[in-house]
């Protein structure tokens, strides 16, 4: 029932059906919060299918044309609110509780919360609705903590999103939220730092300072870089030189 997706662009359409689905979703959230037996494979398959049917969608396309970009200022723009939020919020709540549940076995669940699933979650970080990005941030952070096997993949894909943002589009709604996750991730890095992590600082985090709207995520970016320097004070030299290079190009 909950895999049926309704059209919310018309508030008067399917009112009864939307209400029945909303109530059913609430019942599922209550169930998943109180369940005391491990989820089996069939349940996981159906859970991820329902979540995917509701959440994974094409976001309204942003025009990345440079002329449009010059006129665009995210601090002045009114963010678009997701019309289907009354259903989406409950599905996000359901997914968060499923990932966090002690009854969800990560070894079994990784077959369904796989790389494809994680990638599609990351795509949604470009949502203009901040409520959606907040849920995504919390869920992805939980996935990172629970599914150790996915950690390198998540770091690599966030890295790729930052590259596209820095060198191609200069527009993405979720940079601050992804940096917030990374702040916690960097905090947990073991010493000595791996070369991969140092390269991430050099090639992704420092160049993020050159974006036009750096003010939108500067606080989170500063925190990430500070975490690196606190882990290894020798990186302070790398950071200062990198920032001078970025500023010189400006």
Automatic annotation (TrEMBL):
Gene3D superfamilies linked: Leucine-rich Repeat Variant
- Would you indicate the residue range of the signal peptide? none
A Pfam family (short name) is B56
Query: What PANTHER family does this protein's entry cite?
Result: SERINE/THREONINE PROTEIN PHOSPHATASE 2A PP2A REGULATORY SUBUNIT B, SERINE_THREONINE PROTEIN PHOSPHATASE 2A 59 KDA REGULATORY SUBUNIT B' ZETA ISOFORM
Output this protein's name. Serine/threonine protein phosphatase 2A regulatory subunit
Which source organism does the UniProt entry give?
Salix suchowensis
